[in-house]
Amino acid sequence: MATVQDLKRRIRSIRNTRKITKAMELVASARLRRAQARIESMRPYADRMTELMIGTARASSSLRGLTLLQRREVQRAAIVPLTGDRGLAGAFNAQVLRHAFALERQLRADGVETRWLVAGKKGRSTLTFRGYEIETAWAGFSDRPAYTDAQAIAHRAAELYESGEVDRVVIVYNEFVSALVQRVVERDVLPIPEELLREDRAETEREEALLGDFIYEPEPEEILERLLPVYVETELYRALLESAASEQGARMTAMRNASGNAADLISSLTLDMNRARQAEITQEILEVVAGADALTG
């Protein structure tokens, strides 16, 4: 049985650990609020970008010459998991990688060769440990991604797609639902589905009737050719922001649970310590009584 001193040391150690987890919970909470604000401020830009693409596509005579819209038989696919640079975030990284590996097995079963592009130190280290060859890796921005980080990933993905090295690009990331819920999402970013440019036709036609016809300079096809890469960058930036918010939410929840478990463990050890102290006191009393009996006997 552990002595009173041993239990005191354990309680002191757990209290120090609880201070750390509580501080990490507060930091994650503050970062989560900032990440949510960034997502909310970015959404109008993304929505307006989609509307601009749809309007330009309406005015285009043909979309066949746009490389990023061309669909071909999928023989090679690129998987892009978006993970974090640090741990202590519960199942945040594990569930993204689990989904990515399941997708890879499914593609291989269909005879599709897979290539890996990964964002985040955790994803990179896991893939390296499992012996996968990584095409390109990015790290150092999972907490606070910038638009330039999304551009770097988008440019590499578009380069592989336009050169014919891959026929499909899929990103896997955590979509932020709430601080307690993060949902793994699998989304194709390349090729850009043509259906996207045909959405809300009735609404767009009503707007055009109210605003009148536009004169495009240069031609709509040339404008759309410039807009499509920006759309890919925007989608990746949205995914990075969602992943950053999810990471902070997962870390805040994990640290809150850790703090609660530490409090429960401290209560349990305090009870054990009181019992051990009572046992020592009882033993000392019995020894005093036995000694007194021996002297009087």
Strand/helix succession: HEHEHEHEEHH
Shape: elongated
Measured between the Cα atoms of the first and last residue, the distance is 34 Å
What count of helical segments does DSSP give?
Answer: 6
Structural class: alpha/beta
Ranges where pLDDT stays below 50 over 5 or more residues in a row are 201-212
Give the C-alpha Rg.
Answer: 29 Å
Overall pLDDT score: 83
Q: If strands are numbered along the chain, what order do they take across the biggest sheet?
A: 3-2-1-4-5
Main β-sheet, in a few words? Answer: 5 strands, mixed
Question: Helical residue percent?
Answer: 55-70%
Description:
This protein is α/β, with parallel strands linked by helices and 297 residues long. It is built from 6 helices and 5 strands; from the N terminus they run αβαβαβαββαα. A 5-stranded mixed sheet has the order 3-2-1-4-5, with helices on both faces. β2, α3 and β3 form a beta-alpha-beta unit. The longest helix is centred in the last third of the chain and has 77 residues, at 220-296. It is elongated and about 115 Å long. Mean pLDDT is 83; it is low at 201-212.
